[in-house]
Structure formats: structure tokens, C-alpha cells
Amino acid sequence: MGRKWNNIKEKKASKDANTSRVYAKFGREIYVAAKQGEPDPESNQALKVVLERAKTYSVPKHIIDRAIEKAKGGSDETYDELRYEGFGPSGAMIIVDALTNNVNRTAADVRAAFTKNGGNMGVSGSVAYMFDSVAVFGIEGRSEDDVLELLMEAEVDVKDVQAEDEQVIVYAEPDQYHAVQEAFKQAGITEFTIAELTMLAQNDVQLDADAMGTFEKLIDAIEDVEDVQQVYHNVDMGE
């Protein structure tokens, strides 16, 4: 189905390397999800998805509780959800999702990250059409056949099931996220290595050493922007 998770695993690894930044981003995302509906994951599906993701990143309970309590407390802090699209070296395509309480600041910071590091911003739609929105789950301790069988028995429609990096990865349409999760739950599987609603590129590009160096600096600069939550790209990072 195009790009596999093992080609973008460095995204999670790089975030894990800077836990304070990870926790701050999740705190903001949890707060926004809790404010947009009930601050209870059982009745707020968006919040439930964010909390499942936070679990795979080992976000501490006190970070999660603080964000939810802030939402319960009636904070009037508001955030806009923004998406930027742009290009890096040698055909690299990049999507940037942000949450911000200052649109002008974030736009300027993201544009500066692109232009100062070998990239350039595109217009809305210039990149996103080359990506698919996908629900991705990763589990350990089960075979590919076992996972496929339990999903079939639960009559859950998925796009692909693949063994990757000593785990089994399930790809599904975004609207099947909760159905896949529930099928696993019914089979006694409640721990995931991956639980994401993400964007996967339809095709990868490979960069030479010089272009890769430029690209990595560009991605680092974008991820360093305080309001940036997620960065997606189509570059094959290798093993």
C-alpha cells in the first residue's frame, strides 16, 4: 500500500530523544481534544485517539491529567489547527501540522524553517495529494497470520497487514481506527507499539548523501518550531 512504517520510524525515534518537547506537544494536543468535546475519553473519540498515541510515547500520567484538568477548568486558551505544505531537496515533500494560539507567529516560524534550511513553502494542496490518511497500529508477540485472522473474524476492513521490524503493522482507513482497536481489545490485546492516525506518502524518494544532510537539517528546524505537532514526508530514511 505504498510507504511502510519502517521507512518513517525515525520520526518516532527522534521525538523520543527529546522527551520534554514530546510531552509539551502532547499536553497541547490533549488539551485541545478535551476542550473540543467532553473531557472524558469514553465519550470523546478524538481525545481517546490522542491518549492512545500518548501511551505509545510513554507520556507520564501527570502530563495527561494536567492537560485534561486544564480543559475541565474552563481555560479560555484557544488553538487553531493549521496545515502547511512544502518541499525539500530533490523531490522531498513535507506536510506540517501545527496547533497555535498565534497564527501569524507560527506561519512566520514555519516559513523561516523552510527557507533557511534548503526548502520552500508550497500552496495548500501542492503536497497533500501525494499522501494518504491512514490509521496504523503496531503490536508485538503475534504473528501476521494471527492478526489477520482475528481482524477477519471481527469483520474489520483493513488496507494491509505486514510483519515489519519484529512487530506486526496494521494499516486501515482512518474511520476504521476504533474498529481495529476494539477488535484487538476483544482478542486481549491492549498494548500497542504504534497507535496513530497519520499521513503516509504514496511513494518514497531516495536522496543522495548531500541532499539527505540538507533534508535532515530542514526537518529538525521544522520540528523545533514550538507550535508544530506533526511532520510527515516522503523521504526513504533507510534502515
UniProtKB/TrEMBL annotation:
<comment type="similarity">
    <text>Belongs to the TACO1 family. YeeN subfamily.</text>
</comment>
<dbReference type="GO" id="GO:0005829">
    <property type="term" value="C:cytosol"/>
</dbReference>
<dbReference type="GO" id="GO:0006355">
    <property type="term" value="P:regulation of DNA-templated transcription"/>
</dbReference>
<keyword id="KW-0804">Transcription</keyword>
<dbReference type="InterPro" id="IPR048300">
    <property type="entry name" value="TACO1_YebC-like_2nd/3rd_dom"/>
</dbReference>
<dbReference type="InterPro" id="IPR026562">
    <property type="entry name" value="Transcrip_reg_TACO1_YeeN"/>
</dbReference>
<feature type="domain" description="TACO1/YebC-like second and third">
    <location>
        <begin position="79"/>
        <end position="235"/>
    </location>
</feature>
<keyword id="KW-0963">Cytoplasm</keyword>
<dbReference type="InterPro" id="IPR002876">
    <property type="entry name" value="Transcrip_reg_TACO1-like"/>
</dbReference>
<dbReference type="Pfam" id="PF20772">
    <property type="entry name" value="TACO1_YebC_N"/>
</dbReference>
<dbReference type="GO" id="GO:0003677">
    <property type="term" value="F:DNA binding"/>
</dbReference>
<keyword id="KW-0238">DNA-binding</keyword>
<dbReference type="Pfam" id="PF01709">
    <property type="entry name" value="Transcrip_reg"/>
</dbReference>
<feature type="domain" description="TACO1/YebC-like N-terminal">
    <location>
        <begin position="3"/>
        <end position="74"/>
    </location>
</feature>
<dbReference type="InterPro" id="IPR029072">
    <property type="entry name" value="YebC-like"/>
</dbReference>
<dbReference type="InterPro" id="IPR017856">
    <property type="entry name" value="Integrase-like_N"/>
</dbReference>
<dbReference type="InterPro" id="IPR049083">
    <property type="entry name" value="TACO1_YebC_N"/>
</dbReference>
<dbReference type="InterPro" id="IPR026564">
    <property type="entry name" value="Transcrip_reg_TACO1-like_dom3"/>
</dbReference>
<protein>
    <recommendedName>
        <fullName>Probable transcriptional regulatory protein A374_04129</fullName>
    </recommendedName>
</protein>
<keyword id="KW-0805">Transcription regulation</keyword>
